[in-house]
Design a protein that fits this description.
This protein is α/β, with parallel strands linked by helices and about 350 residues long. About 45% of the residues lie in helices and about 20% in strands. It is built from eleven helices and 14 strands. It has an eight-stranded mixed beta sheet, sandwiched between helices. Bound molecules: NADP nicotinamide-adenine-dinucleotide phosphate.
Amino acid sequence: MEAVRLQGARVLRDAQGGDARALLGSRGSSSSSSSSSSSSTSGRVRLPLRRSKSRLSVVALDAAQPFDYESRRMEQMHKESKLKVGIVGFGNFGQFLAQRIVKQGHAVLAHSRSDYSSLCDEMGVSFFRDVDDFCEEHPDVVLLSTSILSTEAVLRSLPLQRLKRSTLFVDVLSVKEFPKTLFQQVLPAEFDILCTHPMFGPESGRGSWNSLPLVYDKVRVGSGVRDERCQRFLEIFEREGCRMVEMSCAEHDRFAASSQFITHTVGRMLGKLELESTPINTKGYETLLDLVQNTQGDSFDLYYGLFMYNINATEELERLELAFDALKKQLFGKLHNVLRKQLFDVGSAATNH
Ligand code: NAP
């Protein structure tokens, strides 16, 4: 008996001749039929097949069963598409990311300076107080989400020798040149490096990540399975609808200083004014109140990190100051003109009088 595969149906041709059978909805059993009409009883469908010299058995496969080769292969492929992501630094942003990663079916483990065991239990994340235990779990990806200021100390304290020989290191720091250089200096050559910056946070990305930018730079990613692993990690953001922006770390820092740092600075400045909602809020004012709320939710460490670890930040702060001075000069210059005009007009009127 020879077997031929036809669009999901197993066709068995009996060399001795005879009729053909097709089974749908029931597997494993066979039915013999010589009927030429089609019928369906208890899930069986007899296909109208002409009698021929050779016997043809058509066995249509129904839903895949767990013991099938196909099912096992599918299951394996599903498992292979899932990553074991180890998050180091389980603060505000680490938790925010973990939520979505878990939701996508990846295994997430975490390690942090503080104890997040009970929170992790609720979130479906395995928490490791001991960093050696964390590394011995051999995550595919180690995701660094510590404060910018503590990153170097945390990275240098990791027992890298306990990790898999090829591990993908990812950072989500809001500055990019600094972690890139640090990773290149500290991590062994076999480790891959992906620098990312999700340009949103727990406030701005609360509901959906759709259209929010994810900046990334594949600083050092091997080929083949290593590139696939990196791609699978990036897919986490793609699936959430992020706008994927590939850009060098240096370019990121230039853009970020004039956008992100200015946003945080203005938000924090306005925060110091303790602005309050009024019954006659304009849309513009509402935007300012939102800005204050968005930026004040972040730690001061984060803001300080934006300033300290982005070489373009100081220049932006100076530009901001100059712009404010220029605006003040413009206002007072106009005011002086009005006063001067009044003084001279009064003066000339008095003389004439
Ligand atoms: P953060 O204040 O920048 O960082 C808090 C995290 O750093 C916590 O996990 C904390 O650990 C850890 N940490 C702080 N000091 C430490 C130290 N001395 N030793 C060890 N760990 C230390 O706040 P975040 O918002 O969670 O940000 C985390 C990272 O994500 C930062 O690099 C930030 O630039 C980046 N990021 C944040 C946002 C955002 O909107 N928040 C957006 C994009 C990127 P414990 O909690 O265990 O104390």
